[in-house]
């Protein structure tokens, strides 16, 4: 049987409020605005234009739903903690995402994406704490690892691991360049959804 990672992905829908009910295991991707969420999902699905990516922070205010064949759903959550939006908008973000995370029976796990090039950000730590409260499996990924010199990668990943209280080996290093980390990330997703 084909592995999920080798099957075609399609964009299903986008919404600012509620997603349609899900009939298959779902993995949500969250992290700060502009951290590289949409790019990472595109790299996972080997499709450059599945989701729009942008150099301008704060563009994605919507939840996007992607289906991988008839197996699983990948959910691109709006960026967290964009500094230039006001408190009201940030609260609206929090409410939308909390509602989604709390009321989604099919949700098998959450991928928390951080920027491998930066020290742990307050927003990352805040989000990590909020995710602990959901009791969902949380997988840490450090993307843009191509921006960290090889000799410094191990130490930088360890700094992130400690600050965000991840188990050994996490966050997984990832980059859209050469899809570095794609297989390891799919292995972890397969584990969360319970099927290859
Ligand atoms: N160097 C590098 N840049 C990346 C990587 N992933 C995303 N980017 C860039 O980061 C910016 C934000 O990406 P996007 O996927 O739109 O972030 P999102 O707001 O979290 O969905 C874009 O300019 C991407 O080209 C990566 O692995 N390495
Ligand atoms: Mg995006």
Q: Give the CATH architecture.
A: 3-Layer(aba) Sandwich
Give the strand line-up of the largest sheet: 1-3-4-2-5-6-7
Uncertain residue segments: none
Helix content range of the residues, please?
25-40%
Q: Structural class of the helices, strands and pairings?
A: alpha/beta
SSE run:
EEHEEHEHEHEH
Q: CATH class, anyone?
A: Alpha Beta
- Total helix count? 5
Biggest sheet, open or closed, and with what strands and sense? 7 strands, mixed
The N- to C-terminal Cα distance equals 9 Å
Describe the model.
By secondary structure, this protein is an alpha/beta fold. It has one domain: 3-Layer(aba) Sandwich (Rossmann fold). 32% of the residues lie in helices and 21% in strands. Strands 1-3-4-2-5-6-7 form a 7-stranded mixed sheet, sandwiched between helices. The radius of gyration is 16 Å and the shape is globular. The model has no long low-confidence stretch (mean pLDDT 90). The structure holds guanosine-5'-diphosphate and magnesium ion (MG).
Give a quick set of tags describing it:
single chain, alpha/beta, 32% helix, globular, binds guanosine-5'-diphosphate, binds magnesium ion
Break the fold down into its secondary structure elements and pairings.
Layout: E1 9-15, E2 26-31, H1 37-44, E3 63-68, E4 72-76, H2 87-102, E5 107-115, H3 122-132, E6 138-143, H4 150-164, E7 172-173, H5 182-193
Parallel strand pairs: 2-4, 2-5, 5-6, 6-7
Antiparallel strand pairs: 1-3, 3-4
